[in-house]
Amino acid sequence: MSGVRAVGAVGVVTRGTTNPNRLRRMDRWIADRHAWQLRGAADPLVVDLGYGAAPWTAVELLGRLRRVRPDAEVIGIEIDPARVAAAQAYARDGLTFRHGGFEVPLPGGRRPVLIRAANVLRQYGEAEVAAVWDRLRARLAPGGLLVEGTCDEIGRRHVWVALGPDGPRTLTFATRLASLDRPSDLAERLPKALIHRNVPGEPVHAFLSAFDRTWAAAAPLSSLSARQRWTHAVRELRATGWPVLDGPTRWRQGEVTVTWSAVAPRE
């Protein structure tokens, strides 16, 4: 029952759509780019907020993070009590499930080093996003990370924001390159803070337009592979002045990360 307010928790019940491996791109990025935070955490606790009708994403997240930190712990939090009850069959050492919402209820006053909220804010209004971000960031351990974004049903296209205690830091686009005609196809998966800003005059529109141009210019490389074309297009995008982060190792995965300040909505 999407959009129904849940009793005793902050937020509304989502559609709950989920599939195995749907969040693999986000998971791999977290495990690579933010492994240092997990390794350095006194309490390696991670929250999968709004995991949906089935707990696949929480199960998979634990497996991927334990390659980085063997004692990592994941708590899946869902606003629908029936989903929490159904998930209990998947609980194991390091993986538990709790009822809750944006208040992020955790035992013993614990604070997670990471909160992942994927496909949770899609049904909210753009004006509501900042307050939710603030509320979730306030629940983090010092120096913690909030990752919030949206992907398609099978995880081929995904866009997410990474936020620290100081606010939004980066925006990452990740895709299965074989499914892509042009980079701006990813606009349909922009997080709620940006989905309505992909219009002329907004920075995210300018970024995607510039990316389309470097992608088109790299067309001759498509005879080698879509990966070669993407990597060249990202390199050229950075050469034109866009603050693109990381390097070819991440770009070859079908990723590109840009500083948030370059794509943030205009007031």
UniProtKB/TrEMBL annotation:
One of its GO terms (biological process) is methylation. SUPFAM superfamilies: S-adenosyl-L-methionine-dependent methyltransferases. It comes from the Bacteria. The keyword Transferase applies. Keywords: Methyltransferase, Transferase. GO terms for molecular function: methyltransferase activity. InterPro entries: SAM-dependent_MTases_sf. This is Class I SAM-dependent methyltransferase.
